[in-house]
Design goal:
35 strands; globular; mainly beta; ten-stranded antiparallel sheet
């Protein structure tokens, strides 16, 4: 094995690790390469953290955005393109991507390094000057995978691994939006967030009839090291099965599992919005959670005036995700960004996660160029130095809702002044009127004359004038008012029929200084 960012792996050492006898007994030892990565991660955790060597040439470190975009991988050099329906293209190091990653290909059970070659790229415009430099030590920034997703004649890009532990996936007729991460550490904490990074990858060469592709990754950071296995199946909704074994160097206060990162600038319920022709701008519009007890919870996203962190306590959740429910072009009017094609993404634990909480972080952002939404699972059982933890979950894209979600769903959240025009005494100053509209699922079989009731509560403060009424085009509307005040109001409501829920639970925190 070649020299990597983690020291030399000689071929003999690699073979010694193939037994996988010591590390991660929870994994079946049916994959010698994965076992070797697990053992390497365990070894790293037993050593002091060493930051990757700064090997990138100065000319690449100093690239600006426009010049970096003028470096393009040559599609004719795509790996496997004539041997499999899958193919791989590479990203050049430079600009924001200062720490190269090592890539390897596994073929016939043999791992072979994939060396950097400037011949794989075209250097256009301002980037043409790079041809004058020796870039042989540049290595790769990441890679993207292609597959004939939308038709047999063209291999669409469906997955990207680029930067820290970030990766993105899309399914058929979807456009990139939110991102996944391998791990989140101390997100939104006063001490600052730590970003673990994938330092080396091993990709199994896909066969001529392959329907899925598998890859391994070695993660490292000051607090934790880890070995990951990804099995990716492109399709209508692209699926990624994730297995990982983590080894802690340091005590970790907050370990975010299966993190999703997205963007919400403004939407239908936003009180403040820029001077923009577009009605809404977001990659995701809500957090959906399926609790261990079977409750479905919907939290509309916001772009707050100040950082907000919300927790949803649970025991062994059945799933959570960041959703893009608004899928009509007319709700965005953006022909370039095409927010109506941004997928939702759903996380399903394949092992029981036990007690903990889903955490939602909402960060103020001035515009859509910044990701400002993060959601992940945090177990009550913290991960301390010297301990290990196994992760096993599925994450996949969606255009609609998870199949198990059969209740009525929130289709609209709006609020405004409770005052009625022409009636000076209709509301005291500062009162807020909310409406929440539900449609679909179990509500489709409920006629307007049935006794649907509203179950509503507020964790802080009071709720005034709660009521539920049928909508003229099917569905039901819940409405209520909040009194004037300077404290947040945390409200939960759902529709009930014969003492049984017929809708998901709408949960919203109103901040008087909301954006």
């Amino acid at each position: 094995m070649r020299s990597s960012h983690f020291g030399k792996w000689q071929a003999g050492k690699w073979m010694m690790l193939l037994g996988c006898t010591a590390a991660a007994p929870t994994f079946a030892a049916d994959d010698n390469h994965f076992c070797a990565v697990i053992e390497r991660a365990q070894q790293l955790a037993e050593e002091a953290y060493e930051a990757p060597e700064e090997t990138l040439p100065a000319v690449l470190r100093e690239l600006d955005y426009d010049t970096y975009r003028q470096i393009r991988f040559d599609p004719d050099h795509a790996y496997w393109r004539n041997e499999s329906p899958f193919s791989m293209q590479l990203f050049h190091s430079g600009f924001l991507f200062q720490t190269p990653v090592a890539l390897n290909v596994i073929e016939n059970d043999t791992a072979t390094p994939l060396p950097f070659s400037a011949e794989d790229y075209s250097y256009d415009g301002n980037a043409e000057k790079l041809k004058e430099y020796d870039l042989s030590g540049s290595d790769h920034a990441g890679f993207r995978l292609h597959y004939p997703l939308n038709n047999d004649a063209y291999a669409d890009e469906f997955a990207v691994f680029l930067g820290a532990s970030y990766f993105r996936i899309v399914g058929r007729d979807q456009a990139y939006g939110l991102s996944s991460r391998g791990l989140a550490i101390d997100t939104a904490s006063p001490e600052g967030e730590e970003f673990p990074a994938f330092r080396e990858f091993w990709l199994y060469q896909p066969g001529a009839d392959a329907k899925q592709i598998e890859l391994l990754a070695l993660m490292d950071s000051p607090s934790v090291s880890g070995a990951y296995r990804f099995v990716i199946q492109p399709g209508d909704n692209t699926r990624v099965e994730v297995e990982a074994e983590l080894f802690a160097r340091e005590d970790i206060a907050k370990l975010g599992v299966a993190p999703l990162t997205s963007m919400f600038t403004y939407g239908e319920a936003s009180q403040k919005r820029p001077d923009d022709f577009r009605p809404q701008v977001h990659d995701s519009d809500g957090l959906l959670m399926h609790t261990g007890g079977g409750e479905w919870i919907w939290r509309p996203l916001t772009n707050p005036a100040h950082l907000h962190t919300s927790t949803f306590a649970d025991n062994s959740p059945q799933g959570f995700g960041l959703m893009q429910r608004e899928r009509d072009f007319n709700r965005y009017l953006d022909t370039e960004a095409q927010y109506h094609r941004r997928p939702s993404q759903w996380v399903v634990p394949l092992d029981e996660w036990g007690p903990g909480h889903v955490e939602l972080v909402e960060i103020p952002t001035p515009d859509e160029t910044h990701d400002n939404i993060v959601a992940y699972w945090v177990a009550d059982d913290t991960l301390n130095a010297g301990e290990s933890r196994r992760l096993h979950y599925l994450t996949h894209t969606l255009n609609t809702q998870p199949e198990a979600h059969t209740l009525g769903r929130v289709i609209r959240t709006r609020h405004g002044s409770a005052g009625v025009p022409g009636q000076a005494d209709s509301a005291t100053p500062g009162e807020r009127q909310f409406i929440v509209d539900f449609q679909g699922g179990a509500l489709e079989d409920i006629t307007a004359d049935q006794p649907v009731e509203l179950a509503i509560s507020a964790q802080q403060g009071e709720v005034m004038l709660p009521q539920v009424t049928p909508l003229p085009n099917q569905g039901w509307r819940a409405s209520f008012r909040l009194p004037a005040g300077d404290q947040p109001s945390d409200v939960r409501l759902r529709l009930m029929l014969n003492d049984k829920p017929v809708s998901e639970t709408w949960n919203y925190v109103w901040y008087p200084d909301a954006g």
